[in-house]
Structure formats: C-alpha cells, structure tokens
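Readers of this paper often ask what the protein records in our data store actually look like. Such a record has a labelled line for the sequence and another for the backbone structure tokens. Nothing more is needed to write down the fold, since each code stands for a local backbone conformation. The remainder of this section carries one protein's record, kept here as part of the documentation.
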Amino acid sequence: MKRSFLLVFLLWISIGGGVIAQNRSIRFEPKDWKKAVEKARKENKLIFLDCHTSWCGPCKNLAANIFTKDAVADFYNQNFINVDMDMEKDVDGVMLSKVYKPTAFPTLLFIDPHTELVVHRVTGGGDVEYILSIARVALSSDNTLAGSCRRYRQGERSPEFVKKLMNDLKLAHAKKMHREVAEAYFDRLNQQQLEEKENWELFKAHIDNPYSAIFKKIMSGHIHYGRLFGEDEVAKALQWIVIMELGDIAGSSLENGLQETENRYQELIGLLEYADFQGVSALITDARFSKALLQDCGTAWLIVQNGNLYNRTEDEIYGLPFFTFYYPLGSIMPVLEDRVILTELSEIINRIKLRCTSMPYLARLALNSAVIYEKMRETEKAEQARTEYESYCNMR
C-alpha cells in the first residue's frame, strides 16, 4: 500500500510538478523605482529595467514569450532586481524616461543601484539565448557597454575592439558616442583601406552624419566609389544618411523649437545643393517641404499638390521624412491643424499602403494615420489605426 502511494505521489510530482516547473517567469518588482533601488542596494545586485510601451509589438513578445521561459526567469531572478515600466503611462516610467531617454522600444537597461548609472544597454527584442547573452555581458564589467566605453577612453583602438564597440553603441541607440567612435574609425583609414569591401559595409552600417568628413568624402567621390561598390548602392547609402538626418531634425522639432529646426533644415539644404549623386534633388525637395511646412502650411501644401507626394515609387516614398521615420507625424508638424490638409494626408497614406510590402514601413504608416486621426479628433479611426500598427509590429 505504501509502495503504491509512493508511486502515485511520484507520478503526481512528475506530471503536476513538471507543469509548475515550466511556468516560471521573471519576477518584476512593484512599479516603485525608489523601493527597487533600495532593494538592489541591499542585495548588491544590478537592476534590470525593461522599458516598454503599450503599443510596442516586440515589447509584448518579450513579455509573453521570452520572460516566461524558465532559463530566462531563473537567470534574471537570481542575478538582478527586475523592474518593468511603461515609459508613457507608469508614473515612475515617465520619470525614468527623462533620465535614461529611451529612443526605441523595447530598451533593456542594466543599472548600478549605487550610482543609478547604466552599465549595459540594448534596444530591441530577441530569442531566449540572446536575452541570456546580454544579461551575462551585463555581469562582466569589462565587456559591458560602459566598460567598453571606458576602455576606449583609455586608448584601446584595436580594429576588432572598435568594430564591436560600434555595433554595441548602435544597438544601444547611444547616438552621440556611436558617431564619435565611427567617425574616428574612418578618419584613421587611408585611401586603400577606404576602398575595402569590409569598410564599405561598415560605412553603410555606422555612418549617419551627413556633415562628417567621411560622408563628404564619399559624396564628393561617389562616381569613384560607385565603380567599386555599385552606383545604385552608393547612392542609396548616401540617400539613407540624409533621410536619417531629416528624421532626426523632424523628431526633435518640438524639443529644439521652430527657429533651430528651420536652421537645421537650411544647413542640410545648403550641403545638398552642391551634391550631384542620384536622388539628391528629391531629398532637397523633401527638406524644403519640411521647412516650409513649419513656416507656412499653405506654402508646403502647394509642394504636395505639385507632385512631391503623388505618383512616387515606393523607394522614392522612403525619402519622405515625415512618413518614414520613427517619430509620429504630430511631432514633425506641430503647427499643422488644417483639417483639409490632414484629410488629404490620410488619403495619401492609404494610397501608399496599397503598394507597400514592408511590414516596418506599413507599421509606421499606420501610426502616422493614428496621429492624423487624433489631430482631427476622430477617436474610433485613431484606435483602429493604432490596432493596425500593433498588428504590423507583431508580424515583423
């Protein structure tokens, strides 16, 4: 009898206990930053801060499918004090967004509780092994982002180290330091090295400043580099850097104010007016349009009606900064309230969507539609557009 009971008990453990064992997840602290910091100091652990938003598809995937895996849960629960914050809705999340300034979501931060400084930072999601790998890096002081930056400041310049640092900084969206390291890397290259395929790939991956010496060198010598790497490829690389700058100008317009935003547009126009690479004329038009829109919606809309937005190919549409970048339309056009123009913009977006196949781009278009509908106070359509945006995010 005892033997039978023992067998039944062991069977229950193997079935019931096994089910329980497979349901572990990261234990997140209550959404009180001060208490989390105090706990981390007492236990002498780093804080893992998951910065997310309610509309972020990859954030939801992490929460539902990665943080719930036993291997991830066990490692994070053992080594960190874990905190998750909606950076737009949670009170402490809004406060922390001003401190740590996430520019993309999810942003995953590993923070020293004694200084409240970030020791390691990445953006974007990933699979179980990736999420475990970044946690292991966070626990190794020399290989964290902060540790690597310290080694760079101390003079370490081996090519492999610098290439890895560039990748880490890009992944962390540490724009200022990323630009510094990437541009310094190219400043050290001679002409023969610049013509190497590997360094061309690094240029495409890491240069995003149209005022940098290396951008101007490639721009002025685009015919030569076109022979080496392909005319279309060189043109698209130059175009993309300009598009990123247009997006940055637009995305910071509310923070910088009207005058500085206009000045930045004019500076970019001045740089491009002397260029002759493929597609530059369309980029100049886009910059002029964006500048005009800030100054006078009516003048800007004349550019739209004259064909700036109509009858473009999908590749050309990628050059339109207020449709393509990671900022809602409202932050690029803070002065735009004209319902007629907003309605026409909405119709243009719907036409573009019919010939668009890129999920990230469709997601951005849907988010821009939501912003337009919100500005027109059409709540139901705005909610539908945001739902559509989330569905595209989940398809990536």
User: Anything to note?
Assistant: The beta strands are 46-52, 80-86, 107-112, 117-123. The chain has a mean pLDDT of 83. The chain has three domains: 27-140, 208-317, 337-396. The CA atoms of residues 23 and 159 lie 44 Å apart.
